[in-house]
Amino acid sequence: QVPPIESGGGSVQTGGSLRLSCRFPGRPVDNRMSWFRQAPGKEREEVASIGSGTWYIEAVKDRFTISKDEAKHLLYLEMNDLKPEDTAVYYCNFEESWRRVPWGQGTRVAVSS
């Protein structure tokens, strides 16, 4: 199984914006998909998912928007009004654990105050 490829991370100041992209080579993104993040010293956590509807953790509601382009096998995460606590490595994968492919390398987001 081929891991997804995440991109779009970077270093921004508080209040900045980034758009993350995730490509699943050779796989459709027509199942429920999620973005996860892992901050230094913390467990990986799910932050948003998309299927027939969308879900977000409370901490990112109204700031992050998840979307996907099924034709291009791409998943996106638009992040606005970034805060230092959003600093983490961001990963994408299927929401349901039994569907998941190996984790990719992620894309690093650093938000400075």
Brief rundown of the structure:
This protein is mainly beta.
Write the layout of secondary structure elements.
Layout: E1 5-7, E2 10-13, E3 18-23, E4 33-38, E5 45-50, E6 54-56, E7 64-69, E8 74-79, E9 88-94, E10 107-112
Parallel strand pairs: 2-10
Antiparallel strand pairs: 1-3, 3-8, 4-5, 4-9, 5-6, 7-8, 9-10
Detailed description of the structure:
By secondary structure, this protein is mostly beta strands. The chain has strands spanning 5-7, 10-13, 18-23, 33-38, 45-50, 54-56, 64-69, 74-79, 88-94, 107-112. The chain is globular and about 40 Å long. The mean pLDDT is 95.
Q: Total number of helical segments? A: 0
* Main sheet specs: 6 strands, mixed
Helix-strand pattern, N to C? Answer: EEEEEEEEEE
Which descriptor suits the 3D outline? globular
Main β-sheet, spatial strand arrangement? 2-10-9-4-5-6
Which stretches are poorly predicted, pLDDT < 50 over at least 5 residues?
Answer: none
Number of strands: 10
Work out the helicity level: under 10%
What keyword list fits this structure?
113 residues; mainly beta; six-stranded mixed sheet; four-stranded antiparallel sheet; 0% helix; globular
